[in-house]
Amino acid sequence: MLRRFISEPLCLRMSPGRRQLRDSIAASWHRAACPLRLPVDRGARQWVGGLRSDPLNLIRLKPAEGVGMTCVTQMYFARQGVVTPQMQRVAEREELPVELVRDEVARGRLIIPANVNHLAKRLDPMGIGKVARVKINANIGNSAVESDIGQELDKLHNAVHYGADTVMDLSTGGDIDAIRQAILEASPVPIGTVPIYQAVTAVQMVEDLTEDDLLAMVEHQAQQGVDYVTVHCGILREYVGLALGRVTGIVSRGGSLHAYWMMHHNKQNPFYTHFDRILEIARRYDVTLSLGDALRPGSLADANDRAQFAELETLGELTERAWAKDVQVMIEGPGHIPMHLIEVNVRKEKEICHEAPFYTLGPLVTDIAPGYDHITSAIGAAMIGWYGADMLCYVTRKEHLGLPNAEEVREGVIAYKIAAHAADIARGRPGARDRDDALSRARFAFDWNEQFRLSLDPDRARELHDEALPAEYFKSAEFCAMCGPKFCSMHITREIERRFGETGTEKRETSSVEREAVPAD
Ligand code: SF4
């Protein structure tokens, strides 16, 4: 009965109104101005072999309403031996045996953030964990001084269009509910939030928040369809003092709010005290808990300190408690970490949190480049991904300076696609290098259009090439504007191959190299 229920395609039960809304959203995503026309998974094989997935033709889990079950999490089903449609989809996208996906979800090393109420819209399930490709998250959302729904949807589009695997809505101003609703309706990728942000906007002062207010906000966002929530359950009252002498104190917004609340009321963190109530909410909607790193370092000087690792110990304890209730969990990580201190972060997280997926912000490997922190952080992200982090939260060049716009979202996503992809290659994931090899072959064949198509950002690659050589004639030219025709080393190599072949025996046809002086190296 259970298996039949979760296998039933939701689209068969869709009301005409819902179907119309879904189709109109799909049409807007596939509008002509979008050259990629695919807002979902773009793994290496998919690009090499052509586009394969139809994001609208998915089998989905029924929403919680009317189900009558107290737990609908993917972990619960996996532990019952049930392969859900979402597990099947993840297996397909990751090119993994479906039983491996089920085993890993049951074990907690793979999560599928898929709120049943977002599945009822157009969520395309994805997985985060050891056996999956390294994923990236893009943060969007407004602030009290900037942005509106239209701008946030533009950011969402850029994020998903250029390859973000999940998106966090971190809105802190305006009509937060309306913005989140629009994002959830439009997004084919999981949406994460930090519920305390919205809770704070509803009161005059942080200290006015009650414990029930905080828990009610988690439930409210879960009911809306949020797929994962950052909850700063691990910052205990006794840890606050450890962070107060730091160079940059507590840099997590949620962490600083919790710390202030605890010190004002002289009480323990309500998300820790009432963790079981959060678990009940998570079980009801299948909201994945992203256990926040409230005490992450915000500067190299604070990296790997007592405050950071004290909180990590508590997150390990909470991971076990969540798993005991079949709730999916990932662990958030730093932050600002010099390169030589990155590896130990992964080792400790995997040991203390029992290999729960690790989701890191950067880390930034130097503090001296405001305006370029998509680069300082992508360096750290590539390294931490290589060492074993499972999802990388992007940082834009606007970090520390202001709210990123849609173009800065695009740059941040591309920087992190590079980091995640480089990590997949270094970790030896089968097929990870296929797209690199295909692009390199196209490069050596001077097939410029194919180079653009295989690029992470085809628009940018074409734009830069065409700055100097815009004519169609140059799309097969054996040079570009960097070296010019006479000094193009790949052209010269091809001429050598044309003349001498693989055996090294000279062929007699006259080449352009013979007609032109070969430059000294
Ligand atoms: S001209 Fe230089 S940069 Fe351009 S394709 Fe040839 S070798 Fe590469």
Explain this structure.
It is a single chain. This protein is an alpha/beta fold and 521 residues long. The protein has helices spanning 2-7, 16-29, 44-49, 74-79, 85-94, 98-107, 116-119, 149-161, 176-186, 195-201, 211-224, 237-243, 253-265, 270-273, 275-285, 306-324, 342-352, 373-387, 406-426, 434-444, 448-454, 458-466, 489-500, 512-515; strands spanning 110-111, 128-129, 135-140, 166-169, 191-193, 228-231, 288-291, 329-333, 358-361, 391-393. It is globular. The protein starts with a helix and ends in a 6-residue tail after the last helix. The site of iron/sulfur cluster has 8 residues, from helix 23.
Provide key terms for this protein:
521 residues, alpha/beta, eight-stranded parallel beta barrel, two-stranded antiparallel ribbon, 10 strands, 7% strand, disordered N terminus, disordered C terminus, binds iron/sulfur cluster
